[in-house]
Amino acid sequence: MPDVQSTVLEFVNKLRKRKIEGSQATAKCTAELLRSVISQQRVPHANQASALIDAVKAVGEQLVAANPVELAVGNVVRRVLHIIREEDLSLATAAMAGLDLLDASDDEEDGNSKGVGYSPMSAAVVAAAARSTLRPPSLQTLLEGTPESAAVPYTSSSGADSESKTADKSSITRKLKHDVIEGVNHLILEISGCHDQIAEQAIEHIHQNEVILTLGSSRTVLEFLCAAKEKKRSFRVFVAEGAPRYQGHLLAKELVARGLQTTVITDSAVFAMISRVNMVIIGAHAVMANGGVIGPVGVNMAALAAKKHAVPFVVLAGSHKLCPLYPHNPEVLLNELRSPSELLDFGEFSDCLDFGTGSGSPLLQVVNPSFDYVPPNLVSLFITDTGGHNPSYMYRLIADYYSADDLVM
Amino acid sequence: MPDVQSMVLEFVNKLRKRKIEGSQATARCTVELLKSVVSHHRLPRANQASALIDAVRGVGAQLVAANPVELAVGNVVRRVLHIIREEDLSLATAAVSELDFNGEGMSAAVVAAAARSTLRPPSLQTLLEGTTESATVPYTFSSGVDSESKTADKSSITQKLKDDVRGGIDQLIKDITDCHEQIAEQAIEHIHQNEVILTLGNSRTVLEFLCAAKEKKRSFRVFVAEGAPRYQGHVLAKELVARGLQTTVITDSAVFAMISRVNMVIIGAHAVMANGGVIGPVGVNMAALAAKKHAVPFVVLAGSHKLCPLYPHNPEVLLNELRSPCELLDFGEFSDCLDSGSPLVQVVNPTFDYVPPSLVSLVITDTGGHNPSYMYRLIADYYSADDLVM
InterPro entries from the entry (chain B) (predicted)? Predict the structure, then answer.
């Protein structure tokens, strides 16, 4: 316990000091931390799921408070909570199915733990459980379920054993933890593999002799473009440098290293070049529940330019970036202001920026935001690891990944 | 006189039967006809200008009535009327300055102004820099002002007016004939390397424009929309290929599909109205809407004889002409549907399309490239307000 506590404190410190760069790394570390929290948590005999949920929530609050602008932290915490609820529900269903099995057949094939074919209800449930993996349920599976599965809206591959309710309680407890940790492992795999999943779809979107525009530096975009390159599509890329951090220069270097024809342009040149661009591809920092996108500063300008010239605006986002909150939610800090030193040299401007002068308000104000918000009507397509979606479909993905009870932590 | 009358009747017949193809040819023939009308007309001693104007107007009304949809006819008639008024005014001014010659330097300024400008439409600058005297001479003219006294031979003044008018008409003919070259000269400023141009139908102005850019070693490719039902686009495509341009023929319905990859749309106009609206071959409105949606510049080429001083809402302007349904449907197959009191199949086969000025990015005339909202200014230069109703 103390071990976990110190780990948590250490991670909170790292988050507060912004030592971890990037959503993917943050999400992975958060998931791993929560996994150890879960495995170390001692759960009571009854209501073990709520105990787990409370523990995870407590840790999650600390993490979110440490870095509220990194929405991936909150996303992962809510994913884990959703996993706990799911597993709990499926275990309860399996237990119920086990009871039904005992009721229906007292002296027939009691070795048959699956109970296939006895009562249609349990069979359907078990079949459904066995069939789907920890994948978000599609509308189809929901609709084709039996009345029984109406009580089981979320199925999971927990390997439902039809143990009777009188089975060892500690084994059930272990089962829940075990399933939850499996689920979290799966989540970590998903987070790590999101680049590959998204890059697989590149070939459908990038065609021969196209001109792509991107802004800043996103690893997802890099992998996406290189995947298309590997499939022998020849295209050229315009990279807007993305002042004041000039991350675009890094991306351009890497693209050139992989053999792509690249041109670096200033942010102000985006509107001038947009008439010759066939598609704009951006990596998102976070995607909100309404389909709005939080991205590096400058993407809203690119989105407006693209809208004006009817150029498709494509946003790449791993599933850990899907945030169930809306932009107007007070919890969501849409932006973070960084140090003015990135823009102005303190040495030169110290007299303007100084508060020491009599009036107390400097003549020169410097605003250095990190992020930009792009409203959903400017976005043409979202590409996540599950495929390409309309911004208006985001609510559906979010319903698949998160529970409504976890929105307020 | 009877000679002229028979010529007029013959031309009216040709117009009515649509025997003359194209605005440029029509405009040229009209101008030449009006030139002979002016030459043969016997002028009275006084008010010879009004006599000329009435004569030209009489003939002009017949011509316009013969083919009301060919707006170039009316344009040219109004141009000639404007020339007559101009020449008359400049001669009157020369006479007035004759009287004042012994006076102040005002006449010198007037004479200097007259000698300086040619038969070019007056610019805002010359209007503003004129002296108080030239306030009464809004249009200056290089009529070769001789400082003859007012007591000079009246017949020579009559002769002078006719000569000046004929000179003006010759200049007009030259303008009409050279319009393709003048417009094509500007091609190099608008077409750049590696561009994709879209055009629709067949326009000689567009052909010359594109070839001029090709000669200046710009490499670009052209999409030609075929322009059903006459498929004039096929003709244009053949000619472009003959001159070595990379061409692709597409159907009219493919315009919106291709427009995202097009850098500029270039169209030849049938007529440009006073509000900047464009009358073009059927299908250009669709291309203009597609271009607007994708923020592609929509460029219209029009010789100055196509600038019409009327507005599209003017009842005199027939925006369109419906052609025979046989271009669309084979009469043999469809005769049962098309026949009878109220046929179930209606066929509409318009010749022209109207493009509102909000969709047009640029109008290139022989004087240069202009905004559609600048058209009123060119029209004020070329036409007189008194001639709008004939």
Answer: eIF2B_beta_subunit, IF-2B-related, IF_2B-like_C, NagB/RpiA_transferase-like
